[in-house]
Amino acid sequence: MSEEKKRRRSMADMIKEREFDREEDDYSDLEEGQLAPIVVKNVKVPMSTYGIGPVFGLIAIALTIAGIIFRDKWIFKSGIPDSDGLKYTYMGLGIVLILIGLVLYWKAVFGIKVDNYIASGKLCTEGIYAWTRNPIYAGILFVCTGALFISGNVYMYAIPIVLWIVLTVLLKKTEERDMFQRFGQEFADYYATTNRILPKPPSR
């Protein structure tokens, strides 16, 4: 091979490497419904199996347990309604939320087998992932919210709001940024049509 051909091939490799390895773009502030530029980067980097799951899971479980423990302690006692009707209503809502959360989690982990998509580096938009972009995290959030509703203290209903904010920030700063860099327009289209957390039927 001539020196000229070697030089051209080396330059082509450098350009290709830059296209795939740049990480300075940040789409974390992109609003839902907005489209990202058509880019595909970092495809050489393996996808994370667990993502923010362990971090969010620990935070959610810790706050939920704390809410249940302190439901009838100190100033929080006044948050427990006197009406049996309200107590049973909260309990019923809690059971429904827990069931929804378990269905979301089960369908994501065992129904669609998302691990196969992660291992192959493909974007999963099928099954329950057509209803919400993060069914596993949504499942955790629903179960924890349900448990707090069953506890029956209205003050503790602020905890799911805190968890929602924490989850949104974590996703925007980590996984969503990575998905935009990895899948570009494919993820932008998915982002624009599917909710981050709350499940909704996919548009036909």
How is this structure best described in words?
The chain is an all-alpha fold. The protein has a domain of 119 residues. 60% of the residues lie in helices and 0% in strands. Helix 5 packs antiparallel against helix 6. The longest helix has 28 residues. The protein is elongated. The N and C termini lie far apart (54 Å).
Looking at the structure, what is the overall shape? elongated
**How large is the radius of gyration?**
22 Å
Structural class: mainly alpha
Q: Give me the number of helical elements.
A: 8
Query: What is the CA–CA distance across the termini?
Result: 54 Å
Unreliable stretches (pLDDT < 50, length at least 5) are 4-29, 33-42
User: Beta-strand level of the residues, as a percent range?
Assistant: under 5%
What is the average per-residue confidence, as pLDDT, rounded to a whole number?
77
Record field, number of beta strands? 0
Helical content band: 55-70%
Largest sheet: none
Order of helical and strand elements: HHHHHHHH
Key features of this structure:
8 helices, 60% helix, mainly alpha, single chain
Give the secondary structure arrangement, pairings included.
Elements: H1 3-21, H2 53-69, H3 84-111, H4 114-120, H5 135-151, H6 158-173, H7 175-183, H8 185-193
Helix pairs in contact: 2-5, 2-6, 3-5, 5-6, 7-8
How do you describe this structure in short?
The chain is built from eight helices and no strands. With about 200 residues, it is mostly helical.
